[in-house]
């Protein structure tokens, strides 16, 4: 059997398939669409046992009609929308539920793809869960020395 025309290697590839492929293979092609994020670093802080910190907005830039997919690498870190077009801003949130006081590092990766390849931009995220301060009201009379008999 002979073929007289070249077979197309790629037709339409979904952004989710490229995202999964990049994660599994650890390889990204450098000739994909340009993408950038602003800001590229976020800091969150909250008191242990308190409320989650307010979400923060990240602006995407590149070809405004270009689709993207975004994902975080940590269970305490969320990003939305998970997919869209580059003109859409991202909302990044951090949850302190189940976390002990300390500093946590995570990242959000945004992938943009076309038939030429895939590019990514990374947002570095730091979450500080603070130990709550303990304030105790003690009347002065309770501090007075007492004679022990």
Describe this structure in words.
The protein has 149 residues and is mainly β. The protein has a domain of 101 residues: Immunoglobulins (Immunoglobulin-like, Sandwich). 10% of the residues lie in helices and 42% in strands. The chain has two helices and nine strands, in the order αβββββββββα. It has a five-stranded mixed β-sheet, with helices on one face. A hairpin with a 2-residue loop joins strand 8 and strand 9. The N and C termini lie far apart (110 Å).
How would you briefly describe this protein structure?
By secondary structure, the protein is mostly beta strands. The protein has helices at 15-25, 140-143, and strands at 35-38, 41-47, 56-62, 67-72, 77-80, 83-85, 90-94, 102-114, 117-130.
Largest sheet: 5 strands, mixed
Q: What would CATH call the class of the domain at 31-131?
A: Mainly Beta
Number of helices: 2
Derived from helix and strand composition plus strand pairing, the structural class reads mainly beta
Under CATH, the topology of the domain at 31-131 can be stated as: Immunoglobulin-like
Q: What is the CATH-assigned architecture of the domain at 31-131?
A: Sandwich
Taken in chain order, the helices and strands follow as HEEEEEEEEEH
Number of strands: 9
Low-confidence segments, given as residue ranges, are 1-15, 21-30
Rg from alpha-carbon coordinates = 25 Å
Beta percentage is: 35-45%
- Cα separation of the termini: 110 Å
Task: Give the strand line-up of the largest sheet.
Answer: 2-9-8-4-6
- Overall pLDDT: 79
């Amino acid at each position: 059997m002979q073929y007289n025309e070249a077979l197309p290697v790629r037709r339409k590839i979904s952004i989710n398939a490229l995202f999964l492929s990049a994660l599994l293979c650890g390889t990204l092609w450098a000739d994909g669409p340009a993408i950038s994020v602003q800001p590229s670093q976020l800091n969150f802080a909250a008191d242990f046992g308190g409320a989650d910190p307010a979400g923060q907005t990240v602006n995407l830039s590149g070809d405004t009609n270009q689709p993207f997919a975004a994902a975080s690498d940590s269970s305490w870190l969320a990003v939305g929308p998970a997919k869209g077009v580059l003109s859409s801003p991202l909302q990044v949130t951090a949850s302190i539920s189940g976390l002990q006081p300390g500093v946590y590092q995570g990242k959000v990766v945004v992938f943009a793809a076309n038939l030429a390849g895939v590019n990514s931009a990374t947002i570095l995220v730091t979450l500080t869960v603070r130990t709550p301060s303990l304030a105790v009201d003690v009347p002065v009379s309770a501090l007075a020395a007492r004679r022990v008999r």
